[in-house]
Amino acid sequence: MTDTVENLILDLVEWVGRKERTYHETIDAWRTSCPRLPVWEDATDRGLVKTVSANGRSLVRVTAAGLALLREKRPDCYEQLQAQYLEIHQTTERAT
Questions:
Q1: What stretch of H or E contains 94?
Q2: pTM of the model
Q3: In sequence order, what DSSP letters do the residues of 40-73 get, joined into one string?
Q4: What whole-number distance in Å separates Cα of residue 43 and Cα of residue 5?
Q5: What is the pLDDT of residues 60-77, one digit of tens each?
Q6: Alpha-carbon span 52 to 14, nearest angstrom
Q7: What's the domain count of the chain?
Q8: Are 46 and 59 within 8 A, CB to CB?
Q9: 19: number of Cβ within 10 Å
Q10: At 73, which CATH number?
Q11: pLDDT band at 31 (very low <50, low <70, confident <90, very high)
Q12: Mean pLDDT within 75-93
């Protein structure tokens, strides 16, 4: 795999992790017909992102494997996402 594709896969995983993304939004932004840039296809084949159904919507989420790859390759990004998730869960717990 080329460094370009690997970096784009990391960009995709980071992008999905930053906020809730619909399948449609993700495919519009990341699917390509270029056989040399199979970013979406490689990320899903490697189990870095997955599509889930929630409240009647198809959402794309980062998997544990995707987070592990970010932790290894982009530790600063991983730490930011962890802090963001922690903040969201603490806010949710205070509201209940």
A1: helix 75-95
A2: 0.85
A3: HHHHHHTTSEEEEEETTEEEEEE-HHHHHHHHHH
A4: 10
A5: 999 999 999 999 999 999
A6: 17
A7: 1
A8: no
A9: 7
A10: 1.10.10
A11: confident
A12: 81
